[in-house]
Input
Amino acid sequence: MQSKKKMIGNAVFLIVIFAVTIYGVFHGEDLDKMINAIKQVNAFWLIPGVFFALICIWGGSIIIWYLMRSFGICVKKRVCFLFSAVDYFFCYITPSATGGQPMQIYYMKKENIPIPVSSVVLMVVTITYKLVLVVTGIGILIFGRGFTQKYMTGILPVFYLGLLLNVFCIIFMTMLLFHPVMAEKILVKGMRLLEKLHFMKKKKERLRKLRDGMQVYRETAAYLSSHKKVIVNVVWITFVQRFM
Output
């Protein structure tokens, strides 16, 4: 009975999120023009599109599998493929693609992967992905000036802003990754703020579990600090994945 209620709750949650996303995307748009544009699309190109989407998901799964193996967690490649597919799916049905990694952590937890470990893994994935974006963007500015002048003249300020924001995210997330004490302080302050605003009940047990989890986080981060080759390998795998 409990399982059935959980399934219904998950289905309602997905429908609501999907509806909000659809509304945000299509609100204020001319639907007739969009439908006409869709009708003019050559459906044949959906085949290579699906193929390359699967390649992208597979590439992400290899990164997750490699990092898990580095931490001594044996997970099958097909399970890692499902983790990667979860990110792909929820990013597309949630506003601003915010639901992918939280849902990955949820499904990793169901496979008995500790949340601190999955958090570090996904943080490394995010940092390397954003690093690839920044390097690609800088490469376009240096070697693709003709392209930027022809196609990006009107949006260059937004392009520069995107680069700066990604650089900021890389620096901030790297600090959180390799300075777990700072990450713990941020989490504790955030939890106390939620308790103060009465979004959460004040429980000493929750704080204890948080500190215990952060101990695993520190150990995982310390492993990465002493095994920088793992980071280097993830970076080049990410480059290969993104340019396939």
Q: What stands out?
A: Residues 94 and 173 are 22 Å apart (CA to CA).
